[in-house]
Amino acid sequence: MPYAAVFERPGADGFCSPGISPEELASVMRLRVMDAARAIVVLLALTALGGCGGLVYAVQASSASSKLEQAKEVGAEKRAPYEYYLAREHMTKAQEEASQGDYGDAIDLAEIAEQSADKAIQLAREAHRGAGR
Fold it and tell me: What's the average model confidence in pLDDT over 108-116?
C-alpha cells in the first residue's frame, strides 16, 4: 500500500486519522523502518568505501617500492636512468599525496612509478645483456 494512501481515508470522527487496520498500519511502518535501515546501510557502505583509498594506496605503493628496489639491484640507475628516476620521483610524489590524504592521486602516481620501474628493469637487463656480447 502506498504511503500516501494510508492517510487518505477519513476516520469515523471525520478527521484524517488512519482509516486502516492495525495490520495495515504496522505494514506501512515496517516499510518505513526498512527504508530508513537501507539508507543507513548505504551511508555506512559509502563511508567504509571512502576509507579504502589508504588500503589500495598501501598495496600499490608496496608493489612500486619493490619494483624500485629491483630496478636499483639490476643497475637501472646507470643503465636506464630516465626510467629509474622517473619512477623514483613519482613514488616520492605519491608518498607526499598520501600523507595529505589525497589517495586517488597517490594511487595513480604509485602506479606510474611501478610502470616506470618495470621499464627501467627491462632496459637495464637488456643493456647488461648487450654489454656482455
Answer: 97
CA distance 25 to 122: 70
- Cell numbers of 16, please? 484524517
Please give the model's pTM, rounded to 2 decimal places.
0.62
pLDDT(15) > 50:
no
Rounded to whole angstroms, the Cα distance separating 126 from 80 reads 10
Question: How confident is the model over 91-111, as pLDDT tens digits?
Answer: 999 999 999 999 999 999 999
120 exposed, middle or buried (CB, 10 Å; 0-12, 13-18, 19+)?
Answer: buried
**Pair 107, 56: CB distance under 8 Å:** yes
124, 79 Cβ separation under 8 angstroms: yes
How many residues in the chain?
133
Reading the block at residue 37, the C-alpha cell is 535501515
Burial class (CB in 10 A: 0-12, 13-18, 19+), 46: exposed
